[in-house]
Every structure is written in C-alpha cells, then in structure tokens.
Amino acid sequence: MKSILKLAMLAATLASAQAMAAPVVLTFEGAGNLAAINDFYNGGTDSAGNSGTNYGINFSGTSLALIDSDAGGSGNFGNEPSASTILFFQTGGAATMNVAGGFGTGFSFFYSSFQAGFVNVYDGLNGTGSLLATVLLPGNTNSACVGDPSGSYCNFIPIGVSFAGIAHSVDFGGSADNIGFDNITLGAEVPGGSVPEPGTLSLIGLAALGFGAVRRKQA
Ligand SMILES: [Ca+2]
Ligand SMILES: [Ca+2]
Ligand SMILES: [Ca+2]
To answer: Which residues form the Ice-binding protein C-terminal domain (predicted)?
Structure first.
C-alpha cells in the first residue's frame, strides 16, 4: 500500500510538472480569415477546415482568426508580433480559451486596442472556478504604422502576469471588433515572439473602424 501511495504521489507530481512544461505560443498562423478557431489547436480544425498543432487547447465559438489585409485577409491591423494572423471576436464580450490539461507559472500575450480591455485567468474551464489572475489592458495609441504597410490597429503591446495554481481557461475581454490578440503564451510571464518596433506616438485621429474592417483609402 505504501509503495502504491508513493506511485500515486509521483504521478500527481509528474502531471503537475507536465502542466508547467515549456511555454506554448499560439500565433494563429494557418487559421482561416474570419474562421472560428474552435479546435484548430485541439487536434481538430477551425471552421474553415484548417488545423494547427494539437496543444489540447479549444476556443469558444466567438473566437475568430483574422488575417491582415496586407496578406490577403480582411484585418485592419499592422505590426502583429507573428505575421499575419491574430485572434479577435466580433460578438459577445470575450473570447474564451480552454486548456483541458491546465497550465501554470504565468500567462502573456500581445494586444492592440483603442479601448480598455481585460484578460481573466481561471482555474476552471469556460471561465469558471477561482479567478487566478486579471490583466487590465489600457487602450493603446495606434497611429502611423511603421513597418507594416497599413492597418489602424498597429500598436501591439506585450503584457503578462504570473500566478499560483493551475489555470484551465482564459477570457479575452473588451469591446467586440475593437481588440486583437497575438502570440498568446502559456507558461511564461513574457510572451514569445519578436517585439515589434515601436511606432510613432503622435496622437493623431484614432480611426473608429473595427478590427475586421479594411481601411478604405480616402478620396
Ligand atoms: Ca497590415
Ligand atoms: Ca502585418
Ligand atoms: Ca500571429
């Protein structure tokens, strides 16, 4: 009995260690433009039939992939940390990510938004259980897009948080069609991927266009 108990404890320790393995970075590259991400990272496909690496990660039906218009999609953004696809949502108040196997240590990502948003990390699936961490996301300035041909949302900022315990879901919240995320990194307080060159910080006219709206050239 004693040795069986020890084995059980060892298995629990190993499972815990596995949950905190090397950071996983979700770049959304390969997902379809305006496709629901669904099981793209879960051994299945997005709503357009594309599949990515199986990390055991599922996204709620409102979570959409968006490809930069400069790369043939309909995204109104620039300077994303991994070109040319990001996560955003057009309906509801948040996109939810479920990680059945759990993850620990920390969580981080890049985001771009004119308005304030938030990210909540929970220990249960689908935004349930205890709130492990909250990251408040101030609206950031987006103006001249240096390094990316076009796009109103062009100031992707890295941000992250460390927490205790094992997380199983994350809500990415904000104003629908006005906030985008990329290089979502599980297991690290600093997001993976290159940090884009900071754009100019002149506070010129913030376009009221949505994330999924390609900016039209002014006549
Ligand atoms: Ca662009
Ligand atoms: Ca781009
Ligand atoms: Ca990307």
So the answer is: 194-216
